[in-house]
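Table 4 source record.
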Amino acid sequence: MVHFFLYDYRFERVWKNPDSDIEKLSRYRAVLSPDFSMYLEMAPVMQLYNVFRNRWCGAYWASKGIRVIPSVNWGDESMKQITTAEINIRIPMITKSIGIRLMNIPCRGHLSITPVAHLSLSNM
């Protein structure tokens, strides 16, 4: 499984040139949608932009036959409803445990995992 829990600059290219890594990503059993940063101090419009990029990349990869597991992230409680909208809770999804613990949000119906291997596109 490939994840994007890295500094954004390390995987910005999947957004800027989405076709460049399709072949590499398709070799894996599943790919997590990119986890673009959602800082508390980030303007809400930038948080929405990063949610859009996350969803767009995931949908694009899925259209290319790649199994995608959604990464769901939010900066604060006001963004939670927006960032979790339209995610089917009957499928696995990845959330960051730090946000859940800090905000005391129940995880019923969600799957949280810890990556076994830290893979990046630069060393695939």
